[in-house]
Write the structure tokens for this entry.
Amino acid sequence: MPVVQAVAVVPVTPDVAFAVSQTTGAVRYRWDPFVREQHLLDGAARPAKGVRTFTRSRHGLTMVSEYVSYNPPTNVGMHMVRGPWFFEMMGGGWRFAPAEQPGHTVATWRYNFRTRPALLRPIADRIGVWLLGRDIRRRIEGFARGCQDPAVLAAVGTPANP
């Protein structure tokens, strides 16, 4: 099963990094170049294990995903409930760990997926690795910028570093 991953060291603590990763609405759209629309489903007020999320990507594709883990400030995991026809399965996880430099965090984002139809999988998986790899790198770069953006930090209750 193909896996794509991106890592960044951000100048905030793991709890702040985690909070930035879970922002929604205008704050999320400020830093996340992948998401064009995203909201929680079923009347959920906040993310938690079992909560479903609707996402529309910058490509116009939509997905309903479900949190399979939600453990602030260390990790969050999701899997696709419904999404683009070419994914047989899709999952992802984000991890946040203290970096060697105090006050910094190593953020690791990982996706795994399986394409369909099986006959095209050898080619489709390569395309998926390329496309999702590009998107996850752009996304974590946006996340790193968000972790330094005064408006994003204020939204999660943390002032920007002087």
Summary: The chain has four helices and seven strands.
